[in-house]
Description:
- The complex is a heterotetramer, with two copies of chain A, one copy of chain C and one copy of chain D.
- Helix content of chain A is 28%, strand content 36%.
- Chain A contains two helices and three strands, in the order βαβαβ.
- A three-stranded antiparallel sheet of chain A has the order 2-1-3.
- The N and C termini of chain A lie close together (11 Å).
- Chain C is of the alpha/beta class.
- Chain C has one domain: Class I glutamine amidotransferase (GATase) domain (Rossmann fold, 3-Layer(aba) Sandwich), CATH 3.40.50.880.
- The longest helix of chain C has 15 residues.
- Among the domains of chain D are: 240 residues, Phosphoribosyl-aminoimidazole Synthetase, Chain A, domain 2 (Alpha-Beta Complex); 174 residues, PurM-like C-terminal domain (Phosphoribosyl-aminoimidazole Synthetase, Chain A, domain 2).
- In chain D, 36% of the residues lie in helices and 23% in strands.
- In chain D, the strands form five sheets. Chain D has a seven-stranded mixed sheet with strand order 8-10-7-11-9-12-13. In chain D, strands 23-25-22-26-24-27-28 form a seven-stranded mixed sheet, sandwiched between helices. A six-stranded mixed sheet of chain D has the order 1-2-3-6-4-5.
- In chain D, helix 11 packs across helix 14, helix 16 packs across helix 21 and helix 19 packs parallel to helix 20.
- Chain D is globular, with a radius of gyration of 26 Å.
- Chain D starts with 13 loop residues before the first helix and ends with a helix.
- Chains in contact: A-B, A-C, B-C, B-D, C-D.
- At the A-B interface, strand 1, helix 1, strand 2 and helix 2 of A face strand 1, strand 2 and helix 2 of B.
- The complex binds adenosine-5'-diphosphate and magnesium ion.
Amino acid sequence: MPRVSIDVMLRDEILDPQGQAVERALPSLGFTGVAGVRIGKHIELTLAGDGTDVRATVEAMAATLLANPVIERFDWRVED
Amino acid sequence: MPRVSIDVMLRDEILDPQGQAVERALPSLGFTGVAGVRIGKHIELTLAGDGTDVRATVEAMAATLLANPVIERFDWRVED
Amino acid sequence: MRVGVVQFPGSCDERDAAYALQVVGAEPVLLWHGAADLAGVEAVVLPGGFSYGDYLRTGALARFAPVMGALAAFAQRGGPVLGICNGFQILCEAGLLPGALTRNAGLRFVARPQPVRVAARSTWTAGLEPGDVLTIPVKHGEGRYVHDDPGQLAAGGQVLLRYCEPDGTVTRAANPNGSVAAIAGVTNPAGNVAGLMPHPEHAVDALLGSTDGRRLLGAVLSSVAAGRGGPVAAHL
Amino acid sequence: MAPEPVAPEPAPDPLATARELGLTDDEYDRIVATLGRVPSSAELGTYSVMWSEHCSYKSSRVHLRDLPTEGPHVLVGPGENAGVVDVGGGQAVTFKIESHNHPSFVEPFQGAATGVGGIIRDILTMGARPIALLDPLRFGDPADPTTRRIVDGVVRGVGHYGNSIGVPTVGGELAFDPSYQGNPLVNVLCVGVLPADRIQRAAAERPGDVAVLLGQRTGRDGIGGASVLASATFGEGTDAKRPNVQVGDPFAGKLLIECCLALYDADLLSGIQDMGAAGIACSTAEMASKAGLGMRVDLDLVPLREPSMAAWEILCSESQERMLALVSPDRLGAVLAIAARWGVQATAIGAVTEGDRLVFTHRGAVVHDVPARSLADEGPVYHRPVEERPHPAAAEPVDDEPGPADLRAAIDAVLGGTDLADPGWVTGQYDSVVGHGTVLGPGGDAAVLRLDASDFPRGVAVATDGNGRWCALDPEEGAKLVVAEAARNVACTGARPIAATNNLNFGSPERPPVMGQFAATIRGMAAACRALGTPITGGNVSFYNATGDADIHPTPVVGVLGVLDEVVTRVGHAFAAPGDVLFQVGAPTRPGLGGSAYLWATQRRIAGRPPRIDLDEERALQALLVAAADAEWARSAHDVAAGGLLGCLVESAVAGGLGARVIPEAGLAPHQWLFSESPSRAVVSTSSANVLQFANLCDARRVPYRRLGVVVDDPTLELQGLATLDLTDLAARRAATLPALLAP
Lengths: 80, 80, 236, 744
Ligand SMILES: Nc1ncnc2c1ncn2[C@@H]1O[C@H](COP(=O)(O)OP(=O)(O)O)[C@@H](O)[C@H]1O
Ligand SMILES: [Mg+2]
């Protein structure tokens, strides 16, 4: 039962207002020198089965459901 | 200029309505065998400097701004 | 004319949409998300709300609902489909409309009466002229329209409405969510599927405020009526 | 027949556990006496939450009795989940206000969101479709970054839940005062509509009925959260007391609404109760106790998020979006089918029994066996010491003090202050239109809702009001003023006020001066509700609003509901047309700067006596406002409240995009004329054609009136001989007040 993590981020050319807001807020809280903040989603899930076709399952699910390719890209890994 | 990833998730004992709703919807939408879905935030950023005090900076930042310690936990790593 | 209103788990404006359709003279038919067919309606409205809680991404889960298969086929055949707010988001997710809707640039939910300017002649704006200004409520947290090439959309006559000032000028301040090119509504290339962020169904009753929504909802009815016997009806 | 249960295993170290759970030694002894044995852990858990201040009203009960609760329209009064009033035409309306103050301080977003969810379920439980929300909010000093963070979270939380669940937020309040710095007040009122013959009851009916748990799985959320948190003061060690925060899921809440309405339509339930504070323990105890019956529940059947939960945790969990329905066995299948259609988890967990015992079993053993009524209705009742202590600044003669040296600067200060700020920053984050019923949304005196779009002409108006400054200076008079203002706001729209709900936000009841404020408040509120014909049909008491030793201002918040027989006759507060004639009607303007917005905005001062109210004058004014609307002679009506006549005129003019020319009243100091908050006054505009009729109506009803001036086309407010205000500029500045203060 593989445990999988998937990170879904807005594509670089799409404005990420949340990331920008955090980046702007940091200096006033005393954190300087932070740049390029982007905020996306982190999804954790467990797949049934022995993990033989994890890649196929995850990529299919990510490409059709978990991420919207018009605006997002994703990255995934099997944990532990 | 270390590039850092931070995952912010609801603490395990806190209800994650989003993860729960996605998990419940999946079977009827044609995705089977997925369990334990939790959805949080994935944050990417770049720190200035040579990376000597990355740990201190990231943990302070996460604890004060990026995560809400009342309900969330975080995890981070240096990417490259 | 029977017009379907699809009810997803988490839809909120389906009763408003049904009421508004009635006001403009249609017979609304609620369609269940789990249904396999569209019960023979002549047009379909996907109402606003928070289908599946808006979790993951707005519209991302709803677009897999069983009824969406029948809807896609209906749209393919030229059937008129209107997505309002969450309905717009679902249609984008389903690939029936171009682009995507993302978090408002201001990071807050925006609810206000919103002037919008008609940007194209289409079945969805029959009886309206480009440049006409309507005032219709918006209310959304994720309405920032994103598209790689808004110029090409406009050139193709696919931009339906733009956010504007009451006098029709498009300004940054008038744009409630940071949408590219102030786009408030688009259609597919064929023009039969449309999506809007503003809510015409909330603007049909003088007692409650603006009645400008009637002009939009009425337009689809007259277009469908005019199209009877034409390509749309031929496939029904 | 099941064998007689053996007594549950006694809790290890019961007295220490009882103390840890907040029970006093006396209370512990009472439990032992009731049971005739040492209680189990589960029993200690349920007694501690059910006997907490929040659930048992042990400090307030003896006082609340004095409130009027009956009236010709009242179908259900206090004691149920929400009051129900008959609005005619076979329709009934249910409404209630609740607080989520403490959870909103711990976690503003989730605290506020779950507050909205909780009150919606109270309304749903009565059998109604929730149709509107109002959110009276009070925060500390906006200059403090903590306040900004809390405001931001609370407003987002209210919006998140209300917007997503499809119930419009149509009104509320937003007030700031340093007394709420460590203890914001997040109150939420919900209104629902139902057929008058379909009221659901939260009582068991027949032994053998099945108890069905509807909704979310049970987790370790907020165990003792609402109850224990709301029953103790914040101070050091808040962290240790912090229960797991409850997280709201408006999506699950929405499905629950639709599912329950479908169950009501099919008439399948014998009883239903939402699960708020103290979860399963509270809902089962209350339903059984009300019917004089017992109930038996197998906790192993309760769907859990965390399987390791102990019995007392399952019983006391405050997981959100759950309801308990009682169903006769032959209808169970139909109930489960409807729940399945709506995607709502439904599980039979127990049954109603003969006798009076509330029995819970867990992992094969009886873990709880007590008389249901001992939990629900026989909790301790305290006659706490009461000390009525005058406010130190109440004697300051603020009305005799000279006016401001620079009147124009005072005008700018009052209009630029938070009391008069344009609430658009808040209301623009809320969906106020879903449900095609919002005839008048936020921004006016009261919200007006149409009950049925098709053939039903009725509407209701709802307003909430509170005023911590007045109530601090004089709790009894303050409470009268607050009730009167809420009812007057309703009457301004043309609706007849018929009922009220209250949220009594106070400090620690263990301090006699706080109980003194409480007792005085009840006196004032009872008098005003009686005089104005608005019985209290339900409400909430929130004690322990304090930071360390510092209690908040006594802050009763009142919601008043009124009826419009024909909703199309409703009157807004916006000026309608140039040339319309302005009348000031009601009581004469009296000195009224005690506790005023003027005093706060210009001097940061809370002092003086709040203005006196004559409840007969007030009633006469309200009746006049209703009659004028009925006759369709009022084109606008707006009461004189915060910011005095000046505030009233500016709000009406700006809302209508018009201006006014008005003549000052002779014999009054200009600052009293402009800023006095003396009650029982309103400004009404009539078309020039109706001037005479309106004046005659006032004469006939012996309500004093004064011609004030005229509505003009250009956006200026001319206060003849005193000042001329540019309303375009003023509107922009009032709209900028909150964003400037609150933008994080
Ligand atoms: N938090 C809020 N949520 C919704 N509406 C609000 C809120 N705060 C203020 N409002 C709206 O702003 C208007 C003015 O509020 P207020 O000055 O308190 O009214 P009044 O003086 O008539 O009692 C009201 O219509 C009220 O509903
Ligand atoms: Mg008012």
